[in-house]
Amino acid sequence: MANVFEYASVFQSELDKAAVEQATSGWMELNDKLVRYNGGADVKIPSMDMDGLADYDRDKGFVEGSVNLKWETKTMTQDRGRQFTFDENEVNETNFVVTAAQVMGEFQRTKVIPEIDAYRYSKIASLCIDKDRAGYEYTPTESDILQKLYYDIAAVQDVVGEDTPLVITMARPVAASTLSKSLSVMDFKQGDVTVKVKSLNGEHPILRVGSGRMKTSYIFNDGTTGGQEKGGFTAAEGAQDINWIICPRTAPIAVSRTDKVRIFDPETYQKKRAWATDYRKYHDLWVPDNKLEAMWVNIKQAKAGVGG
Asked: What is the pTM of this model?
């Protein structure tokens, strides 16, 4: 039995690694080196503010300035999980590890990662909307998408300059139907993996995301309320379609952590004669206040509350 339980820590490490590499938003987790994390749901993220230039005085010298580095405590609001059981007649100690690894890996790939992506993109959209960093009522066409995209890039570069690396996250139907002929290919590093992605002029990577993950708001089902038993997520009523999000690569700070994986053998698990394993995922995303001005979201529909 000892060998089986040793695999729990391996599961945890491999699931975290896979989450970064497989999520289309996994690059945002490369910024978590800025985060102080000591376990549980709380993290600390930095926010820096400093004074600008002042006149130099030949007699008095420099005007003293200040740098204010604050560490804000944030709580990961997304605390999600599921328990999976395997009847003891279906698996034994020998093949349980292989079976559990396959099930949990597939669960994370098909259920967890799409939800994490959807949460992150919808939160970024909400933050941009609240900050008036959004454009509305635009349906991309092949004749005008490049011009519109360059205008939106300019809105970001007007804040951060032209030397700051940007990432464009775009709904897959938008990229496929209107932009495919205008793109080149470049290398893009995500976690320990370097992948080939489409890019604009070889400098702005464009990450194509399924439209189901590119809405402005979602309902994340609790698994117990009537109609929500299957869990997962669905677009909220009135959710709008995101055409694309443009932001500096260092702006969003995303964190996801798989909690300690627990494994119970059939002698320990009390509900039935089965093996059981628990999967629990904490995750969230933040953008420091001083970086919100450097982001932009383009939305297909008209601004909520505007027009008929």
From this structure: 0.85
